[in-house]
Amino acid sequence: MFPGVSEAELVRRAVEARARAYAPYSGFAVGAALLAKDGRVFTGCNVENASYGLTVCAERVALFKAVSEGAREFVALAVACGAGPCAPCGACRQALYEFAPDLLLILADGEGRAWRTARLAELLPHGFGPKDLAR
Ligand code: THU
User: Fold this and answer.
1) What pLDDT sits at residue 4?
2) Which domain holds residue 23?
């Protein structure tokens, strides 16, 4: 389905990344794996901080790693979290929307089970993006 990477593989990478979460305050570990159009996969985990507010979610860690490595076009994002699948928070939806409004989200639990899928634009209707500044 994707350039050399299946949905199952992407979920597996998110689960693997989740094991590296630094979440001593919430105890809530999240992993993400972002597939770029060129076939590269960028992973991320949540990184918390003693000042709480500086915490960065797994999804944005993966996105910023990707963009800093030159990837700007994305196909799918797998997220592995908690006891059941969870969708990216509002801040992450906005950050992802900048690059990939139509991104396929694959949401799994912490073990990579119980997937469901959604499109980012469904989760962020009427999203604000580069197109709005171009008018
Ligand atoms: N978190 C993520 O990494 N991604 C999400 O989609 C939801 C929340 C993190 C932030 C914080 O470290 C912990 O989960 C609890 O909110």
Assistant:
1) 85
2) 7-133
Which residues' Cβ are closer than 6 Å to ligand 1?
23, 26, 28, 30, 46, 48, 55, 57-59, 86, 88-89, 92
Give the number of domains in the chain. Answer: 1
Whether 39 is in a domain gets the answer: yes
Q: Per-residue pLDDT averaged across 33-42, rounded? A: 98
Reported as a pLDDT band with limits 50, 70 and 90, residue 3 is low
The reply to whether 2 falls in a domain is no
How many whole angstroms from 32 Cα to the centroid of ligand 1? 11
Q: How far apart are CA 128 and CA 91, in angstroms?
A: 12
Q: d(Cα 130, Cα 111) in Å, to the nearest integer?
A: 35
Residue 23, domain CATH: 3.40.140.10
In this predicted structure, the answer to whether residue 59 has a pLDDT above a threshold of 60 is yes
Torsion region of 12: left, alpha or beta (phi above 0 gives left; psi -120 to 50 gives alpha): alpha
pTM for the structure as a whole: 0.96
- pLDDT reported for residue 27: 97
